[in-house]
Amino acid sequence: MTAPKLRLGVNIDHVATIRNARGGAHPDPVRAAHMAEKAGADGITAHLREDRRHISDADIERLSKEISLPLNLEMAATDEMLAIALKHEPHAACIVPERREERTTEGGLDAAGQMKLLTPLVGKLGDAGIRVSLFIAPERAQLDAALALKAPVVELHTGAYCDAEDATHRLMELNRLTDAAKYGASLGLEVHAGHGLSYDTVGPVAALDEIRELNIGHFLIGEAIFVGLEESIRLMRAAMDKARAIAA
Ligand code: PXP
Fold first, then answer.
1. For residues 55-76, average pLDDT
2. 198 domain-assigned
3. Structural domain range at position 243
4. Is 102 a residue of the active site?
5. Are 248 and 42 in contact (CB under 8 A)?
6. Residue 103 and residue 195: Cα distance in Å, rounded?
7. What separation in Å is there between the alpha carbon of 159 and the centre of ligand 1?
């Protein structure tokens, strides 16, 4: 049986980081989103941080109106961000931690420890037709919490896997991602993954059948300096497709 298509969400936050280093309007993250579409992206991801360090409110407004790909809004679990999401009604909202106390040791959202805060938030986003995902560490307790919260999607944090100090630790982290992806799918959750992925690390994650979407940003924008944005995305798309085809 062939694995379902693996979607690529391109995170354009760091186009805005470069723009904001000087102020002004260049480079424009919306232009990057259009280019990502041409290069084979299946979605655009943008994180409106509470401190607005990269993506701005105006960027979200323009992305909502001007791009045809589905927009995945990454947001903290706050009333302010909830109001913004309900105003723009993006295709998807991914709840991410911004403060230390909201995170697990690995940096994922502590969904299991914040059920009270997250229950109404996930409910209101879902009622508005926004597909909610929770950015969590690859841990069964967090997946159980996502199910209890009725979030349809989880995004597994690949940071510990990408940052592993040696091959042994990387394999350990890959095993944790594999277990979490399989367990999440067995619960009926749609499983995504992301954070820190590069051409060197994407293959084994892309090969996991249960994973339906990868969200990748920093590496693609960095690599674009050398090869251009379309090419950096095309090469990532090709690396994902190759890994998926080998695994099939
Ligand atoms: N997924 C989520 C939930 C994230 O917060 C980020 C980083 O903003 C990414 C994926 C992409 O990570 P990176 O920029 O390291 O590829």
1. 98
2. yes
3. 7-247
4. no
5. no
6. 15
7. 9
DSSP secondary structure, 134-165, as one string: EEE-S-HHHHHHHHHTT-SEEEEE-HHHHT-S
Nearest to 149 by CA among 96, 111, 94: 111
Decide: 158 and 118 in contact? Cβ < 8 Å: no
For atom 15 of ligand 1, the residue with the nearest CA is 196
What is the domain-level CATH number for residue 184? 3.20.20.70
Averaged pLDDT score across all residues of the chain: 96
Out of 54, 157, 192, 195, pick the active-site residue: 195
* pTM score over 0.90: yes
pLDDT at 3 over 80: no
Q: Cα(196) to centroid of ligand 1, in Å?
A: 7
Return the structure tokens found at 99.
Answer: 């403060």
105 within domain boundaries = yes
Asked whether the beta carbons of 110 and 93 are under 8 A apart, the reply is no
Residue 1 lies in a domain: no
Structure token pair of residue 244: 């998926």
Question: Is residue 1 pLDDT above 90, yes or no?
Answer: no
- Facing residues of 70 across strands? none
Give the contacts of 23 (CB within 8 A, at least 6 positions apart): none
Confidence class of residue 2 from pLDDT cuts 50, 70 and 90? low
- Total structural domains within the chain: 1
Report residue 147's pLDDT band, with 50, 70 and 90 as the boundaries. very high
Determine whether 157 is an active site residue. no
The catalytically annotated residue of 14, 47, 88, 157 is 47
In the reported structure, the alpha carbon of residue 195 is separated from the centroid of ligand 1 by a whole-number distance in angstroms of 4
pLDDT on residue 248? 80
Between strands 153-157 and 190-194, the pairing is: parallel
State the pLDDT at residue 16: 98
